[in-house]
Amino acid sequence: MASYHLTVKTGAKGSGASHAAYISREDKYANKDKYEDLEHKQHGNMPLWAKDDPLLLWKAADNFERSNGTAYREFEVALPREMTPDQRLELVNEFIKKEIGERHAYQFAIHCPKAGIEGKEQPHAHIMFCERINDGIDRDPEHFFKRANSKNPELGGAKKASAPQSHTQRKEALIALRERWAELQNNHLEKHGHADRVDHRSLKEQGINREPEKHMGPKRVYDLTIAQASAILERRAAERELEQANTIRDSLIDLSGDFRTALAERDKKLSPALPENDELRAGVEAFKNSFAGKQEFMRGFEEYKQEQQRQRETERQEQLRKEHARARTKDNDRGFEHD
């Protein structure tokens, strides 16, 4: 089932290069099991000196942006797991074309980790871009991040796109952006033959009477008991069935038309979503078994580590005992020499 998520973030001076390395799984994030989820990475609109290595742009921002400046701005978006990797890439590229265009240097990465409880894909994209506007003037890294000169642009740095906004203006701009992302995502879902749709509105605005689910990181998932994890899965299945029941109810309010036609149309709209609930319910027991196996393995692994630590401590104590014994022997030998 497609889910909606879009957040806008900013990164302060000094954080650009490290965040770029994180999203692209480079430097200290390379070749590590927990970061083996990179589906695609790409960059564009870079200055000539960073055309082949986008990390140079973010390092320059960290070094030359003003002390209280922003090194980058980021869109973080969830992507439909129903789509193929190529379809997700197409969606992200069109979003960048519409929202960033050729005005800003950008770098993005698509990650596709597995969900901690359900084990399903959780594809999402991190889209970093520089707020400095590409105006066609060739500047070196230090010059690029200087203060803009409106009278003589070539003497100053690249101008920043961000302008002072009130709280209301920022809120309205974010809502508009979220709506555009939902519309674009739904267009692509329809284009590729998927029945699911996303909605940028809050659950309350959609008339759904439940609290939004909080994100659970790997550590919190690991600390769950089997009963707790199963309860979460069963609650999700029940909530989806309730939402479908409400959809059925709403679709049958107007009975002025042909009843059979209305039922056929309703079933056509709802049928693609039903197998997922059946699959989710059927997978609860399988999850219990696999989750129990993982928990048992981790308990055994922790016991093994503790045993190794005890063994090393025993060996260390034995080594100290031997060193003390040798030291006493040497002291005794020196005593005999004096006698």
Automatic annotation (TrEMBL):
It comes from Buttiauxella gaviniae ATCC 51604. Pfam families: MobA_MobL. InterPro entries: MobA_MobL (IPR005053). The lineage of its organism: Bacteria, Pseudomonadati, Pseudomonadota, Gammaproteobacteria, Enterobacterales. Residues 147-169, 303-339 are annotated as: Disordered. Residues 23-219 form the MobA/MobL protein domain. Belongs to the MobA/MobL family. This is Conjugal transfer protein. Keywords: Conjugation.
